[in-house]
Predict the structure of TetR family transcriptional regulator.
Amino acid sequence: MATRGAYAKGVVKREEILEAALAVVAEHGYRKASVREIADAAGLSPAGLLHYFGTKEELFVAILRARDDRDEQEYAGEDVVQAFLAVTRHNASVPGLVQLYAQLAAEAGDPEHPAHAYFRERTARVEDFTRAQVAADQQAGLLRDDLDPAWIVRTMHALADGLQSAWMLDPSLDMAGEIEQFLVLLRPSH
Amino acid sequence: MATRGAYAKGVVKREEILEAALAVVAEHGYRKASVREIADAAGLSPAGLLHYFGTKEELFVAILRARDDRDEQEYAGEDVVQAFLAVTRHNASVPGLVQLYAQLAAEAGDPEHPAHAYFRERTARVEDFTRAQVAADQQAGLLRDDLDPAWIVRTMHALADGLQSAWMLDPSLDMAGEIEQFLVLLRPSH
C-alpha cells in the first residue's frame, strides 16, 4: 500500500510538472524552455525533474501527450470539422507548443528518435477517429461523397502541419481561415 | 588581381564543399551528418570547412540554397504544377534533404535563428513566382478561376510541407499522389 501511495503521489506530481512545463513552453517557446526553467516552475531541481521523465526528449513528448489529452477532452462530442478549426484557432494562441510540436515532429522522422513512436501512434489515432467522422459527414450530405475520406483526413492533417510552419515564419497568416477555404472545396455542389 | 583570383578560388571551393555536403546529407540524413563527416567528404578539416561558412547552421542554409538553385534550374520553363509534382517526386529520393529542410524550417520559426531570413525569403520568392503562373493557368482555363491564386499557392506549399512530415514518419506515403488528388479539386468543372 505504501508503494501504491507513492505511485499515486508520483502521478500527481507528474501532472503538476506537466502543467508547469506546458505553461513555460507556451510562453517562452521550445528552444528557450530549458530543463532548468521548467524545473524552477515546478519547484524542483533539474535532476528532480528528470527523475519523473527520464530525458528532456521524453519530457517534451509527455508535454505533447498532455496537450493532446486536453484538446481531445475540450472538443469531445463536437463536429469533427468544427473541432479541427477550433484547435487550429487555439494553436495560434500557444506559439511555444506549436514550435515544440513542429520541432519534435521534424526530429521524429528518424526511427531512433524517442518521439518517433509517439508521432506514429498520434497520427494513427487522430486519423482513424477523424476518418470515421468524415465518412459519417459524407453520408449525411455535409461533405462531398466522391472523395476518399482517408485522403480528406490526411490532407487536413498535412495542411494544418504545413500551415503551422508558414505561420511560425509569418504570424500574420490566418491558419484557420486558410483551412476554411479548403473546406469549401469539400462541400457538395447543389 | 591576386585577391580576385583568391576570391574566385574560394567560390569554386565553396561549390565543391556544397556538392559534398549535399551528398552526405542526402545519404545520411541531417541529424547524422556531422561537420566532421562533411569536412571529410570535402577533403578539409572541420575548422577548414567552417572557414567557408562561419557556422554549422550557415553551412546547412547554404546546402538548402544550393538545392533550391538546382531544383529551379532543373524545372525552369516547365508548367508550374508539373514542376511542383516533379520536385515532390524527386524529394522522395533524398530523405536527408527533406529532413534537413523540415528541421531547419521548424527551428527557423524563431526570428533569431540563422535560417529565419532564408525561409522568409524563400517563401516570398517561390510563392510570388508560382502565383503568377497559377493566375496564368487560371486565365488559360486549366485551373478554376473562382479561387484566389495566392490561396492556391499557399495551400500547395503548406500541403507539400505537411506531407513531408507525414512521409518522414511513414515513407510508404505517396506525397505526389496526395497532391495530385488535391489538384483534381482545382480543375474547372465542365
Notes: The longest helix of chain B spans residues 2-28.
